[in-house]
Amino acid sequence: MRKVIIVLVVILLFKVLFVIWSEHKQTVAELLPIKYVRIEGVFQYISKETIRQALQPYVKTDFFSVDMQVIHKVVMQLPWMKKVTVKRVWPDAIDIKVYEQIPAVRWGEKSLLNPAGELFTPESVAEFQDLPLIVGPKGYEARLLAIMKGLETTLAEHSLHLAEFKVNERRAWEIVLKNGMVIKLGRNGQLKNFNRFLKTLDLLGQDKVDAISKVDLRYPNGFAITWKIDTPAIDWKSMAARQLKPQ
């Protein structure tokens, strides 16, 4: 019987303490409204004011009641957000640290990829038209960015630069260079055929490379070249003979 009484007393004591704490917490909360929302970061594509406006409905409360998870979610949903940290700072502030996305290439018509190949979609990509373009199946963003970087490195060795890298649903590749040259690579042996073609470029010379409009590498043992209009005819036999002639 004595043990039961002790248990009941303990329970009653906890209830009393809880009520006292609840009343005290409410009183303290009324005295501790959120006065400061401090936002830090490097702001290139989004402003502090945009973040403050988005948060305004969620910080009109007190230090204890403000929902930090909601604050984090609201900021992360804004364009250009890569990472956000949020914390309370006693007695009346919230500190927010934001990290913006860094655009590496365009993805399709409306999106961008960061250097890690992560997709994000800002309100507009109009100011990023100078970035290389990748078009490809959803879910292949990081893989295609890695391939594009390899292609660009190889092209740079031949004083050429990639503008567009397109992969369709059948996994056929097409490359557009900054000089306007279109290279069709098909579905199979793309890198092998690509490297074989680049070796041929070294034989042509820069003037003839600049005259190429389109190259079709979808042949097992060769490729087809379409020249720009008014390009003089090339004597391939003479060119080959000069290359084979002992030095």
Which features does this protein show?
247 residues; alpha/beta; Rossmann fold; nine-stranded mixed sheet; three-stranded mixed sheet; 7 helices; elongated
The CATH architecture of the largest domain can be given as: 3-Layer(aba) Sandwich
Mean pLDDT: 85
Number of strands: 12
- For the record, the CATH class of the largest domain is Alpha Beta
String of helices and strands: HEHHEEEEEEHEEEHHEEH
Low-confidence stretches: none
Q: How far is it from the N-terminal to the C-terminal residue, by CA?
A: 113 Å
- The radius of gyration computed from the alpha-carbon positions, rounded to a whole number of angstroms, is 31 Å
- Based on helices, strands and strand pairing, what is the structural class? alpha/beta
- Beta-strand portion reads 15-25%
Spatial strand sequence of the major β-sheet: 6-5-4-7-8-9-10-11-12
Q: Could you name the CATH topology of the largest domain?
A: Rossmann fold
Helical fraction equals 25-40%
Largest sheet: 9 strands, mixed
The tally of helices reads 7
